[in-house]
């Protein structure tokens, strides 16, 4: 690993003051589970590493008594804490599910919420020190006609076909969460639905933050009566990245689903809001039939690569099962 | 080269001072600076769990933590598990069940299992298997390890 200067500021303002205006020279250190790996592979070579460990009040979960109440999670909160918090399990089961199913106990004990939202993508070409892909100053995406079984299936208009790696982000988008961000000019609020963008070249990240901005916290409104669920399809039952993920949330008016949100993960360079699938079940009762139709609708517009057409089926099933879970239907797929 | 960093931490119950380069992981500090070579380097990227230690009582991969980050914290390594009176029940049960062959993964499994039993003294087999998902063993096929942990739990370790 290339050596660097280690900083341990005690306030968010001091941390922001240490960041640079462009990406690459300074990195924020949360739990380190992604950053250390990137540094060991020489994919990240910062000359400054700025630890958030000494910033007071950077972690923890609190509730703002508003209407509806707002749950605020500090960016330094460990994923294990998010997964085991009783309030989050009760009001945001899809978030608790995504957090609890992430990595291993070791990873969840180290990784932070802010780090999870800002982590780099998992494309094996991007993570290979010796490959100069689009995101590392090269002129081509090697996944487009290479080994692409875990890459995006929504590839239209994208020159880089990574998938957004966070399983937490789709859940936060479904709940209408927003991030509070601190930069040199002060604070701003970014909706999680607008937090991500598809990177195209070196110097761009997977999100919209500036290089000298820091995520302080995430706020989630606790809508009364909201039903929600997360469904991830992975090859192993623990410690695996999903190949497709669906998070759904809706209200019930009698038996009819209202204000339906369906967010897709691990199928595109950003989390995707599945408009067609949402329209399919809006105002309808969630049954096996309507949920299956929404699943098929979720794959509309996909353009899979040579090795990942299989993800279409997985995504359709993920959406269907997430809808049925949130509706309280029997989980016939659990034996 | 950046200056070495002075870190104060409690290692296996003993207050200690050490110097480390910013880029040194906690695992490198433990093995190369403090000569605590019980924690092993397997994958060095958070997959195998051979480097597991407890950081303020929480199970972590020491290969993914910078040494500088343990300032003011308590670290428990495999060397801190047994007492002067003898082996920890988990260690004893690993021996009885022959839950190890080459032994490289064993310190990580013992530390991970200790963290589990402190949180959940009576885990089910499924809970043990899920908890140990971040520990890889290429010899035993896991079954003897799971049985050793369940047996240690029955002892009330």
Description of the structure:
Chain A has 335 residues and is α+β, with helices and mostly antiparallel strands. Chain A has a domain at 227-326: 2-Layer Sandwich (Enolase-like, domain 1). Chain A is 26% helix and 21% strand. In chain A, the strands form three sheets. Chain A has a five-stranded antiparallel sheet with strand order 4-5-8-6-7, with helices on one face. Chain A has a four-stranded antiparallel sheet with strand order 9-10-11-12, sandwiched between helices. The longest helix of chain A has 17 residues, at 310-326. The radius of gyration of chain A is 20 Å and the shape is globular. With 157 residues, chain B is an alpha+beta fold. Chain B folds into two domains: 5-80, Ubiquitin-like (UB roll); 89-155, [2Fe-2S]-binding domain (DNA polymerase, domain 1, Orthogonal Bundle), CATH 1.10.150. Helix content of chain B is 32%, strand content 16%. In chain B, α2 (89-96) packs across α5. The longest helix of chain B has 14 residues, at 106-119. Chain B is globular. In chain B, 47% of the residues are buried. The model of chain B has no long low-confidence stretch (mean pLDDT 96). Chain A binds chain B through residues 1-6, 8, 29, 31-33, 36-37, 39-40, 49, 51, 53, 78, 80, 103-107, 109-110, 237-239, and chain B through 1-2, 5, 21-23, 25, 44-46, 49, 52, 55, 58-61, 63-66, 68-69, 71, 112, 115-116, 129-131, 133-134.
